[in-house]
Protein backbone atom coordinates (compact mmCIF):
# COMPACT_ATOMS: atom_id res chain seq x y z
CA UNK A 1 0.00 0.00 0.00
CA UNK A 2 1.36 3.41 -0.94
CA UNK A 3 2.53 5.59 1.95
CA UNK A 4 1.75 9.14 0.78
CA UNK A 5 3.80 12.21 1.68
CA UNK A 6 2.24 15.37 3.10
CA UNK A 7 3.08 18.98 2.29
CA UNK A 8 5.70 19.14 5.06
CA UNK A 9 7.71 16.33 3.46
CA UNK A 10 6.80 13.75 6.12
CA UNK A 11 5.02 10.55 5.25
CA UNK A 12 1.49 10.10 6.59
CA UNK A 13 2.80 7.24 8.71
CA UNK A 14 5.45 9.50 10.29
CA UNK A 15 2.86 12.20 10.99
CA UNK A 16 0.53 9.70 12.60
CA UNK A 17 3.32 8.40 14.81
CA UNK A 18 3.98 11.94 16.03
CA UNK A 19 0.30 12.38 16.83
CA UNK A 20 0.08 9.14 18.80
CA UNK A 21 3.14 9.97 20.89
CA UNK A 22 1.53 13.35 21.67
CA UNK A 23 -0.89 12.19 24.37
CA UNK A 24 -2.34 15.71 24.53
CA UNK A 25 -3.66 15.19 21.00
CA UNK A 26 -5.37 11.94 21.99
CA UNK A 27 -6.76 13.47 25.17
CA UNK A 28 -8.11 16.42 23.22
CA UNK A 29 -9.94 14.16 20.76
CA UNK A 30 -11.60 12.20 23.53
CA UNK A 31 -12.45 15.17 25.77
CA UNK A 32 -14.10 17.01 22.91
CA UNK A 33 -16.05 14.09 21.46
CA UNK A 34 -16.46 11.26 23.96
CA UNK A 35 -19.59 12.56 25.73
CA UNK A 36 -21.53 13.16 22.54
CA UNK A 37 -19.92 10.91 19.96
CA UNK A 38 -17.63 8.36 21.65
CA UNK A 39 -17.86 6.00 18.69
CA UNK A 40 -16.52 8.74 16.43
CA UNK A 41 -13.66 9.40 18.85
CA UNK A 42 -12.75 5.71 18.80
CA UNK A 43 -12.91 5.71 15.00
CA UNK A 44 -10.52 8.67 14.77
CA UNK A 45 -7.99 6.95 17.00
CA UNK A 46 -8.31 3.69 15.08
CA UNK A 47 -7.79 5.48 11.77
CA UNK A 48 -4.60 7.10 13.05
CA UNK A 49 -3.36 3.71 14.21
CA UNK A 50 -4.15 2.16 10.84
CA UNK A 51 -2.29 5.02 9.17
CA UNK A 52 0.86 3.89 10.93
CA UNK A 53 0.50 0.17 10.33
CA UNK A 54 -1.26 0.12 6.97
CA UNK A 55 1.34 -2.16 5.46
CA UNK A 56 2.99 -4.94 7.44
CA UNK A 57 5.22 -6.86 4.99
CA UNK A 58 6.46 -9.37 7.57
CA UNK A 59 3.05 -10.48 8.81
CA UNK A 60 1.65 -13.94 8.11
CA UNK A 61 -1.91 -12.81 8.80
CA UNK A 62 -4.48 -13.20 6.02
CA UNK A 63 -8.15 -12.63 5.33
CA UNK A 64 -10.12 -15.41 7.00
CA UNK A 65 -7.35 -16.34 9.46
CA UNK A 66 -8.93 -16.10 12.91
CA UNK A 67 -6.80 -18.10 15.33
CA UNK A 68 -6.12 -15.02 17.45
CA UNK A 69 -9.89 -14.40 17.62
CA UNK A 70 -10.23 -17.37 19.97
CA UNK A 71 -8.55 -15.60 22.88
CA UNK A 72 -10.20 -13.22 25.35
CA UNK A 73 -10.13 -9.58 24.31
CA UNK A 74 -10.41 -6.79 26.85
CA UNK A 75 -11.58 -3.36 25.75
CA UNK A 76 -12.05 0.17 27.05
CA UNK A 77 -15.44 1.87 27.45
CA UNK A 78 -14.70 3.97 24.37
CA UNK A 79 -14.12 0.86 22.27
CA UNK A 80 -17.27 -0.72 23.70
CA UNK A 81 -19.23 2.31 22.46
CA UNK A 82 -17.72 1.92 18.98
CA UNK A 83 -18.68 -1.78 18.88
CA UNK A 84 -22.19 -0.96 20.09
CA UNK A 85 -22.64 1.67 17.37
CA UNK A 86 -21.36 -0.71 14.70
CA UNK A 87 -23.82 -3.42 15.76
CA UNK A 88 -26.79 -1.07 16.02
CA UNK A 89 -26.20 0.51 12.61
CA UNK A 90 -25.08 -2.47 10.56
CA UNK A 91 -26.42 -5.71 12.05
CA UNK A 92 -29.74 -7.30 11.24
CA UNK A 93 -31.89 -8.51 14.13
CA UNK A 94 -30.98 -12.15 13.61
CA UNK A 95 -27.28 -11.24 13.71
CA UNK A 96 -27.75 -9.32 16.95
CA UNK A 97 -29.64 -12.27 18.44
CA UNK A 98 -26.83 -14.64 17.41
CA UNK A 99 -24.14 -12.43 18.96
CA UNK A 100 -26.10 -12.03 22.20
CA UNK A 101 -26.74 -15.79 22.44
CA UNK A 102 -23.06 -16.54 21.88
CA UNK A 103 -22.06 -13.96 24.50
CA UNK A 104 -24.39 -15.52 27.07
CA UNK A 105 -22.91 -18.96 26.46
CA UNK A 106 -19.37 -17.60 26.80
CA UNK A 107 -20.25 -15.81 30.04
CA UNK A 108 -21.80 -18.98 31.45
CA UNK A 109 -18.75 -21.04 30.48
CA UNK A 110 -16.25 -18.60 32.00
CA UNK A 111 -18.20 -18.28 35.25
CA UNK A 112 -17.34 -21.93 35.91
CA UNK A 113 -13.60 -21.40 35.39
CA UNK A 114 -10.98 -20.27 37.87
CA UNK A 115 -9.10 -17.02 37.29
CA UNK A 116 -6.06 -18.91 35.98
CA UNK A 117 -8.20 -21.06 33.71
CA UNK A 118 -9.83 -17.97 32.23
CA UNK A 119 -6.44 -16.59 31.22
CA UNK A 120 -5.70 -19.50 28.89
CA UNK A 121 -9.22 -20.58 27.89
CA UNK A 122 -9.96 -20.49 24.16
CA UNK A 123 -13.36 -19.51 22.80
CA UNK A 124 -14.26 -17.93 19.45
CA UNK A 125 -15.20 -14.27 19.64
CA UNK A 126 -19.00 -13.89 19.48
CA UNK A 127 -18.52 -11.42 16.64
CA UNK A 128 -16.96 -13.98 14.30
CA UNK A 129 -19.10 -15.00 11.33
CA UNK A 130 -17.75 -17.61 8.91
CA UNK A 131 -14.29 -17.15 10.40
CA UNK A 132 -14.26 -13.40 9.76
CA UNK A 133 -14.64 -10.40 12.05
CA UNK A 134 -18.07 -8.84 11.60
CA UNK A 135 -16.94 -5.50 13.08
CA UNK A 136 -13.55 -5.35 11.36
CA UNK A 137 -13.61 -1.59 10.73
CA UNK A 138 -14.53 -1.00 14.39
CA UNK A 139 -12.40 -3.72 16.00
CA UNK A 140 -10.60 -2.67 19.21
CA UNK A 141 -6.92 -1.76 19.44
CA UNK A 142 -6.04 -5.10 21.02
CA UNK A 143 -7.20 -6.85 17.83
CA UNK A 144 -6.00 -4.12 15.50
CA UNK A 145 -2.45 -4.34 16.85
CA UNK A 146 -2.01 -8.13 16.63
CA UNK A 147 0.27 -9.21 13.78
CA UNK A 148 1.84 -12.66 13.72
CA UNK A 149 4.77 -13.76 11.59
CA UNK A 150 3.82 -17.44 11.74
CA UNK A 151 0.19 -18.50 11.27
CA UNK A 152 1.06 -22.16 11.92
CA UNK A 153 2.28 -21.17 15.39
CA UNK A 154 -1.04 -19.36 15.92
CA UNK A 155 -2.91 -22.52 14.96
CA UNK A 156 -0.77 -24.59 17.34
CA UNK A 157 -1.31 -22.03 20.07
CA UNK A 158 -5.03 -22.50 19.75
CA UNK A 159 -4.51 -26.05 21.06
CA UNK A 160 -1.59 -25.41 23.39
CA UNK A 161 -1.53 -22.04 25.22
CA UNK A 162 2.18 -22.53 26.01
CA UNK A 163 3.09 -22.28 22.31
CA UNK A 164 5.43 -19.40 21.51
CA UNK A 165 3.66 -17.22 18.95
CA UNK A 166 5.94 -14.69 17.22
CA UNK A 167 4.15 -11.34 17.06
CA UNK A 168 5.35 -7.97 15.81
CA UNK A 169 5.92 -5.88 18.94
CA UNK A 170 5.79 -2.36 17.47
CA UNK A 171 2.00 -2.26 16.99
CA UNK A 172 1.41 -3.85 20.41
CA UNK A 173 3.57 -1.25 22.14
CA UNK A 174 1.81 1.56 20.27
CA UNK A 175 -1.57 0.10 21.18
CA UNK A 176 -0.57 0.08 24.86
CA UNK A 177 0.36 3.78 24.66
CA UNK A 178 -2.93 4.66 23.00
CA UNK A 179 -4.95 2.63 25.50
CA UNK A 180 -3.17 4.39 28.36
CA UNK A 181 -4.09 7.75 26.83
CA UNK A 182 -7.72 6.74 26.39
CA UNK A 183 -8.01 5.55 29.99
CA UNK A 184 -6.28 8.70 31.22
CA UNK A 185 -8.90 10.79 29.42
CA UNK A 186 -11.67 8.66 30.90
CA UNK A 187 -10.23 9.10 34.38
CA UNK A 188 -9.61 5.38 34.74
CA UNK A 189 -6.66 3.78 36.49
CA UNK A 190 -7.23 0.14 35.55
CA UNK A 191 -5.92 -1.04 32.21
CA UNK A 192 -9.12 -2.52 30.81
CA UNK A 193 -12.75 -2.75 31.83
CA UNK A 194 -14.72 -5.27 29.81
CA UNK A 195 -14.40 -8.33 27.65
CA UNK A 196 -16.23 -8.17 24.33
CA UNK A 197 -19.04 -10.57 25.46
CA UNK A 198 -19.53 -8.52 28.64
CA UNK A 199 -19.74 -5.31 26.62
CA UNK A 200 -22.31 -6.85 24.27
CA UNK A 201 -24.49 -8.12 27.12
CA UNK A 202 -24.48 -4.70 28.78
CA UNK A 203 -26.10 -3.15 25.72
CA UNK A 204 -27.99 -5.97 24.00
CA UNK A 205 -30.06 -8.32 26.16
Q: What is the structure about, briefly put?
A:
The protein is mainly α and 205 residues long.
Keyphrases for this structure?
4 strands, two-stranded antiparallel ribbon, mainly alpha, 205 residues, disordered N terminus, 4% strand
Textual characterization of the structure:
The chain is globular. The N and C termini lie far apart (41 Å). The strands form 2 sheets. A two-stranded antiparallel sheet has the order 1-4. A two-stranded antiparallel sheet has the order 2-3. The chain is mainly α and 205 residues long. It has 10 helices and 4 strands.
Major beta sheet, strand line-up: 1-4
In terms of DSSP E residues, the strand content is: under 5%
N- and C-termini, Cα separation: 41 Å
Q: Give a count of the beta strands, DSSP E runs of length 2 or more.
A: 4
Low-confidence segments, given as residue ranges, are: 1-11
- Rounded average pLDDT: 80
Shape: globular
Number of H- or I-type helical stretches = 10
| Main beta-sheet annotation | 2 strands, antiparallel
As a percent range, the share of helical residues equals 55-70%
Structural class per helix/strand content?
Answer: mainly alpha
Instruction: List the helices and strands in order.
Output: HHHEHHHEEHHHEH
Radius of gyration: 17 Å
Amino acid sequence: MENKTSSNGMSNSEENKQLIHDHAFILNIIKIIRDREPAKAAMMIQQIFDGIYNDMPDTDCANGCSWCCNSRVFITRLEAKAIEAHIRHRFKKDQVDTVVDRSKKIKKKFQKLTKDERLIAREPCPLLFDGRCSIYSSRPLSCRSTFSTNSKACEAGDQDPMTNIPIILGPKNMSAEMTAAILMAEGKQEEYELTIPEAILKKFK
